[in-house]
Design goal:
Alpha-Beta Plaits, alpha+beta, single chain, SH3 type barrels, 3 helices, 4-stranded antiparallel beta sheet, 41% strand, 5-stranded antiparallel beta sheet, 176 residues, elongated
Amino acid sequence: MEKKWYIINTVGGQEVKAKASILEQVKLKNLEDNFGEILIPSERVVEVSRGKKKEKDRTFFPGYIFIQMVLTESSWHVVKNTPKVGGFVGKGKPQPVPEDQVIKVTKQVQEGAKSVSVAVTFSVGESISIIDGPFNGFDAVVEEVSEDKMKLKVTVGIFGRPTSVELNFTQVKNLI
């Protein structure tokens, strides 16, 4: 039988441990022939926080793993009963991910491996400067940080009134 790609959900932030647990269970149950690659789509980023740089992996889809396998009763049970794994995405029988989608994700992972991107960490209450968009040149204060979406909710003083605006990380810079 042909191996197909499926998406499984995991405990958030525990994708690496879930992958290791699946590999361990597969080996324990002698099902290596039923399983192929297990992919945690991520990229290497350099975070700048309080003036210090730190490299880390940022997952594209937190809480999800792509797994290549032959779907049998025994392989399904291995995945379903593995610690840190919630199960397959979707209702009822797991549906394979279309091949074009898998190619798109693997291409994204390969591009991420080639270039290390920079992620600047912002903190609530921090003063920032807007460098792009209609509020270019304004200073603002960070209200909310959404790292997974790479967006900030900031308060900008417009005509003497505080106005809440949502911006991308790339539209702002730290005032430090």
